[in-house]
Amino acid sequence: MAGIEIPGLGRKLRLLVEHGHFDSWNDLARTFGRARSTVYGWGHGTDERAAGTIPGNRFEVLIDVVLSCLPPETTREEAKMLVLAPVIEFETEFKSQAMVSMNRIIGDEAKTSSGKLYPKPKANAGLIESDQNPEPELEPGLSIQLGKWFRLEFNTTAKTGYVSALQNIGQNWGAVAAHFERKTGRVLLPGFKTNRTLAHIRERREPGLHRFIVMQTPEPPPTEFTRYLVDGIALDGVIIRRMAQFYSDQHQNRRQMFLLKLQIRA
Distance between CA 193 and CA 243 in Å, rounded? Predict the structure, then answer.
C-alpha cells in the first residue's frame, strides 16, 4: 500500500510518548493496531519502507491520535495541519500544551491567601539575639531584591498527604524543596538545614514576577519530579505535563494548591 510522507514523523511519534500522552511505544502502537516495531519503523525506516512514511490507511488514525492529545477546541483540520507541519512547529505546540495544562489548573484551583514571605533576618553584629520582636513578615505580592535570601510559608488545614513545590517565571519552571509539618499544617519552602535551623532560598539571575506553587496531594509526586529536584534540573515540558496530570488524577476533595506571587527586583 502506498505510504504518505510526513516531515519528522519519527520525532513526532516520540513526542507523543515523551510528553506523557502514551506510557510507552507499545501503548502508542496499540492505538494503531500495530506492533511496536512496525510503528517505530514508520518513523525511522525499514528495509521495505523509507523513514517518515506511514501507510495510507493509518494516516487518519494518526490524525485522531494527535487530535486526542490537543485541547478540546482544536479542530480535526488543525490537527491534520500540525501532523503535516515541520517537526519544530509540532514540537513547539506539544511543549506549550504542558504549560497550558498546568496554568489552567493553577488558575482554577490555587489559593492565594495562605502564603507568607519572610526575608532572612539581618546579622546582629555578634550581639545576642531575641525572638521577642522578630523581623516583620511581608505580605504576599510584595517584592524582594534580586540575590536576597528569603523563605516562604503556607498554611493548610489538611494535615495529611504530601507536598510538591514549583517555581515559575515566564516559560521557565523549577522544582523547590519543601517541608511539610503535619502537626501544624505548615509548609515551609525550602524547609530546614541539617542543624534544624530554617533554610532560605534566593533568586540570583532572573528578576521579574515569580510564582511559587505548592501542591498538596494524598499520593507522593512522581519519582521523576524528585530526580529533577535533587539534581537541580530545570523542569521541561515532559515533567510539567506529568505533574499536571498527576495533580488532576488526585481526588478533588483531597488535593489542594497554593500560590504566592513574588516580584523580584533587579
Answer: 26
